[in-house]
Specification:
mainly beta, Methylamine Dehydrogenase, Chain H, 2 domains, 4-stranded antiparallel β-sheet, 26 strands, 13% helix, globular
C-alpha cells in the first residue's frame, strides 16, 4: 500500500506541475480528406483530428476547449476532441454562413445568399442578439476586444460596434487589392490577408487602421489566425505556416498528401488547469499523509 501511495502521489505532483494545457490551433481541411485538425501551436504537431460529416466554411475557437464551425445555413459548436455540443440551423436554406468570429461569449457570423449581413448571437444558446446589413459583401470577419468587429470587403477594412455602428474604415487606393481573411491579435493589431495585384498580410493598428508593416510570405494565404506572441498562422494549400508579425518564418508544416487543402484556421490560447483539480490534488495528498500516519501507529 505504501508503494501505491508513493506512486500515485508522484503522478499527482507531475499533474500539478503541468498547470497549463499548451496553446493549440484548429484548422479546417478539405480536398482528398475532410475535417478539422487540432495541433500544438508551437510545434505544429497533430494532437487529434475529426470529421464532423460536413464541409466547414469557417472556424473559430471558443473559450473552453471548444470551437464553432459554419456550413451552409448552420452554425455548430464542437469540443476540440470532436464531440458535438450543439448547433443552430436558420430556417431559410438560402442563407450561407461563411465567416465566424468569437469574443466575450458572443459569436459574430457573416452571411450571404438570400440575405446579407452579420448576426450577433449568444455563444451558448445561439439566441440572436441583433443583426445588421453593412451594405456590402463581407469577405472576412474578426472580433475586437471592445464589443466590436472588423470586416473586409474589396479593398476596404471596416470597424463596427456589435450594435452595427460604423466606427472606422480604411480603403486602399489600389482597387485591384482584395482584403480577405482578417484576425485581431489582442495587442491592438489587426492582421489582414490581401490578394489581387499584390499578395501578403498587412499589419495595422486596430484603432486607427494605420499600417505598421507588411508580411510577404510568397504565397496567397487562404486563412489567418493570430497567436499570442505577436505572431500569426497562415494556411495555403497543404501547408500551415507560423510567422512573426515582422515577417520572420518561425515554423511550418507541409502535409504529405498534396490533395489536402487547409482553409480556415483559429488559435486557442493555453488553458490553465481548473481550480477543482488543484483542490483534488491538495486534498488527496493530505489524505495520503493522514493514511500513512495512521498506518504507522
Amino acid at each position: 500500500m505504501n508503494i501505491f501511495f508513493k506512486l500515485l502521489t508522484s503522478m499527482l505532483f507531475v499533474l500539478a506541475s503541468n498547470t497549463v494545457m499548451s496553446a493549440q490551433i484548429y484548422t479546417i481541411y478539405g480536398g482528398s480528406q475532410n475535417g478539422v485538425t487540432v495541433r500544438d501551436a508551437n510545434t505544429l504537431a497533430q494532437i487529434s483530428y475529426f470529421d464532423p460529416g460536413f464541409s466547414a466554411s469557417s472556424i473559430v475557437a471558443g473559450n473552453n476547449n471548444n470551437m464553432y464551425l459554419t456550413s451552409n445555413n448552420t452554425i455548430y459548436n464542437y469540443r476540440n476532441t470532436g464531440t458535438y455540443i450543439s448547433s443552430f440551423t436558420f430556417p431559410d436554406i438560402g442563407i450561407n454562413y461563411h465567416e465566424v468570429a468569437y469574443a466575450g461569449n458572443k459569436i459574430y457570423t457573416a452571411y450571404n445568399g438570400s440575405q446579407n449581413g452579420v448576426t450577433v448571437r449568444d455563444s451558448s444558446s445561439f439566441n440572436q442578439l441583433l443583426f445588421f446589413d453593412p451594405g456590402f459583401a463581407i469577405n472576412g470577419i474578426t472580433a475586437g476586444n471592445n464589443n466590436d468587429m472588423y470586416l473586409t470587403s474589396g479593398n476596404s477594412i471596416y470597424n463596427y460596434s456589435d450594435t452595427g455602428t460604423l466606427l472606422n474604415s480604411f480603403t486602399w487606393s489600389d482597387t485591384s487589392i482584395l482584403y480577405s481573411d482578417t484576425t485581431f491579435n489582442g495587442n491592438n493589431k489587426l492582421y489582414t490577408v490581401y490578394g489581387g495585384s499584390q499578395e501578403g498580410v498587412t499589419v495595422r493598428d486596430a484603432s486607427t487602421l494605420a499600417q505598421f508593416n507588411v508580411v510577404a510570405p510568397g504565397f496567397l494565404a487562404s486563412g489567418i489566425a493570430s497567436g499570442d506572441s505577436n505572431d500569426m498562422y497562415l494556411t495555403s494549400a497543404n501547408g500551415i505556416y507560423r510567422y512573426s508579425d515582422t515577417g520572420v518564418l518561425l515554423n511550418s508544416m507541409i502535409f504529405p498528401d498534396t490533395g489536402i487543402n487547409y482553409t480556415g484556421i483559429t488559435f486557442a490560447s493555453a488553458v490553465p488547469v481548473p481550480a477543482a483539480i488543484w483542490l483534488f490534488i491538495s486534498g488527496f495528498i493530505g489524505f495520503v499523509g493522514i493514511a500513512r500516519r495512521r498506518h504507522k501507529v
